[in-house]
């Protein structure tokens, strides 16, 4: 896997993936930025959330669960001193569908957390990563 990050100005950068996708990252005005894009640490959390959500949805679909939506709400805490690494990350899944089996949802979340989600497992080397979920019944 390859990526390229190009400095634009001040603390603004353009990140490009080898698959041809691009994203702007920028800092807050007090750090010399213009607030034109996400902060790098925000991008890490979003990447982790997308990685684990991908797993949960894929596992539920393979298990023939009628999932119609999945939202990962993520809260994180960082160390007070530099390097300000994540020290705690909590992922709360809101999984929507018709007649979802709670045991299947729990299994999908657990498999992602413990086996499949590379991002969660990697961040778990420096932070306490926890997960929980709720199921929302979709109206007919």
In DSSP terms (H or I, runs of 4 or more residues), the helix count works out at 3
Q: What does the radius of gyration come to?
A: 17 Å
What is the first-to-last residue Cα distance?
43 Å
Give helix and strand order, one letter per element, not per position. EEEHEEHHE
Average pLDDT rating: 97
Reconstruct the topology from this structure.
Elements: E1 3-9, E2 12-17, E3 22-25, H1 40-62, E4 67-78, E5 86-97, H2 102-116, H3 118-123, E6 128-137
Parallel strand pairs: 5-6
Antiparallel strand pairs: 1-2, 2-3, 4-5
Helix pairs in contact: 1-2
Descriptive account of the structure:
The protein is elongated, with a radius of gyration of 17 Å. It has 3 helices and 6 strands, in the order βββαββααβ. It is α+β, with helices and mostly antiparallel strands. It starts with a strand and ends with a strand. It has a 3-stranded antiparallel sheet with strand order 1-2-3, with no helix packed on it. A 3-stranded mixed sheet has the order 4-5-6.
Write a compact overview of the structure shown.
The chain is an alpha+beta fold and 140 residues long. Helix content is 31%, strand content 36%.
